[in-house]
Amino acid sequence: MATHRSPTSALLTRPSRRRLLLTAAVLAPLLAGCGSGFQAETNQIYQPGQGISVRDTAVYGVNMLIVSDGEGNGTLVGALINQAETTDRLVGASVRPTSGKALDTTIVPGRVPLPPHQAVQLADDGDVRITGKLLPGAYYVLTLTFHHAAPIETQVPVVPAAGDFADVPVGPVPTTGG
Q1: Judging by DSSP bridges, how do beta strands 119-121 and 73-82 pair with one another?
Q2: Which 8-state DSSP code applies to residue 22?
Q3: Is residue 78 part of a domain?
Q4: How many domains does the chain fold into?
Q5: CA–CA separation, 153 vs 172, rounded Å?
Q6: Which residues does 138 contact at the CB level (< 8 Å), separation at least 6?
Q7: How far apart are the C-alpha atoms of 72 and 70, rounded to whole Å?
Q8: Cβ-count burial of 54 within 10 angstroms (0-12 exposed, 13-18 middle, 19+ buried)?
Q9: 157 lies in a domain?
Q10: 93-97: long-range contacts at Cβ-Cβ below 8 A with a sequence spacing of 24 or more?
Q11: Can you say whether the dihedral through the CA atoms of 54, 56, 57, 60 is positive or negative?
Q12: 83-137 pLDDT tens trace
């Protein structure tokens, strides 16, 4: 037995197909945004901390910033992660305003060892101390030099020694008593 379509059912089916095609044409570009490739916003590095992260050399600087006591003393905070297979070490540090002379910057133990694939937290002991005019809210140029890896140079913010940073050892460079 053959089925017979009435002219009315054909009219009802045709607008539904048109509506479906129109809906698909409108939604396709919107849904395509979810797969925007490697430059999609969801693929970009998100940096939730206040500090600056640099991943350009064999030693990564993660969440780098300077904590200031408001009296001209500061401590570099952040983690250094050696990506090489051999131990490296931090041998030099320089901090200067974006225009002007470098501030007095000292690596307290002289050098900071950087074992392979381990994070070394600079804030724990206050390894890198800065003395000079440090203005909270301002950015300063930080240059870190290593025994093997290429140097890191970036701008880092200065924050006050309060809140999350209240426990950071900040103050004049410790001297060895005699």
Answers
A1: antiparallel
A2: H
A3: yes
A4: 1
A5: 24
A6: 97, 157, 158
A7: 6
A8: middle
A9: yes
A10: 93/128, 93/142, 93/143, 93/144, 93/145, 94/141, 94/142, 94/143, 95/66, 95/130, 95/132, 95/140, 95/141, 95/142, 95/143, 96/140, 96/141, 97/133, 97/138, 97/140, 97/141
A11: positive
A12: 999 999 999 999 999 888 999 999 988 889 999 999 999 998 889 999 999 999 9
As a whole number of angstroms, the distance between CA 67 and CA 34 comes to 40
Strands (E), the chain: 52-54, 59-68, 73-82, 88-97, 104-107, 112-114, 119-121, 128-131, 139-146, 152-160
CB 88 within 8 A of CB 114: yes
In a domain, 69, yes or no: yes
Give the Cα-Cα-Cα angle 37, 40, 46 (nearest 5 degrees).
135
Taking the C-alpha atoms of residue 172 and residue 11, their distance in angstroms, rounded to an integer, is 86
CA 172 – CA 132 distance, rounded (Å): 10
Domain of 119 in residue numbering reads as: 52-165
Residue 84 lies in a domain: yes
Tens of pLDDT, residues 42-95: 665 555 668 889 999 999 999 999 999 999 899 999 999 999 999 999 999 999
Cβ atoms 66, 139 nearer than 8 A: no
CATH number of 63's domain = 2.60.40.1890
Record the tokens describing residue 107, joined without a space: 């690596």
